Amino acid sequence: MIRSLKSPRGVLSVLVLLFFAVALSLTASVQATQIEYEKVDHPPKLEGVLARIQKNWAAQKRALAKATARQYGAADIDGENITVVLEPRDGQLSESIDFGALSNLGVSIVAQSRHLVAVSSPISALERLTHVAGVQFVRLPIKPRPLVVSEGVARVKASVYSRRGFTGRGVKVGVIDIGFVGVPSLQNRGELPQVFSRDFTGGGIFERGSLSESAMVHGSACAEIVHDIAPDAEIHLYKVADIVSLENAKDAAIQEGLDIVTVSLGWRWGSGFGDGTGRACEIVDDAFQNNVLWVNAAGNYSQSQVSAQLSDPDADGYHNFDGDDEVVSLQNVRAGDEVEVWLTWNEWPITSHDYDLLLVKIATDGSTEIIERADTKQYRSVPFERLVYTIREPGNYGLAVWRAEDAKVTLFKGIIYLKP
Fold first, then answer.
1. Smallest Cα–Cα separation from 4: which of 362, 365, 315?
2. Does residue 260 fall inside a structural domain?
3. Which end of the chain has the least Cβ crowding within 10 Å, N or C?
4. pLDDT band at 149, cuts 50/70/90?
5. Domain co-membership, 311 together with 413
6. Looking at the 3D structure of the chain, how many domains does it have?
């Protein structure tokens, strides 16, 4: 059976699906036939989408491999290479990875932080990366999503404090963000003072690159707010693009003696479980332990939540959202919409309980066709799956969660983001 999401409240939160679009609303339940899914035996420690890219590349399906890479945000396939992130064994620093072995595979270092390494690797060598000493997991870069920014000086009544002499004098404030386009123009107009800036992306501190119109000025707007609230504070701008550069920016904030950093970015659950565990939270904890107050945006989607208790009473390998319902249907999905889904479970940082995420198309007779999957083979690897798909034709679509026979995790979390 296929079921729509019932209510944003009142259901036990064993699997939490956060819906980041109002288009995901109620639909009717319909009877469904058995989902036909066979788990592909991907190499462990390699993100499933990378395994598919490598497989298609080896089969001379280069166009399909490139299309998949673009779909998952890795548009920077350069010749025979793709940028990926190496995670070291749990508890180890990135220096524990055998860099000589990486060099022998034709891999070059793009960026390195204390706990992560971004590399440009030949696509043909992706599986071999998982066998390099010190490497625990190989995945695509996790990129942040800018959160909503408003010119909220009046709303927070900052002028009350500035009139009393609290202007930020002697305080160093860092703004960590993905886009600072337009900062020089703001300075010329007197809306920003002299700033100190560092680029941890390699793309240029004030350059747009591939950022959207809203993202490219996101950090600039954040810096304006900081200056309006604390006009005498010393402002530092740190440009980041992923978790690797975020950790490097954090280290710079500590080294340069910043008092406060403000971050209006969301990292979703590819970097943790959302309960204080995971790499992003560890970065924040380290900053705080080194006397840097970290202020992060939160709560943008607090009213967009719906939860459902999952189980598999019929032991058919699919979680039941409610009764016999093994598919959550999505309404108002249109051709051209991009559906992005993240699933994680409470076994951070390493799991061997294997779960897959399936996007299905639902026919009028209830039959289902799997059109995209997130199918990493979890064996001492990171507990998350990510699925991205651009809808090609109108119709009814839904999500299902498959589990391996011995997978028995009790708490899941997920995000669904629908981009028109």
1. 362
2. yes
3. C
4. low
5. yes
6. 3
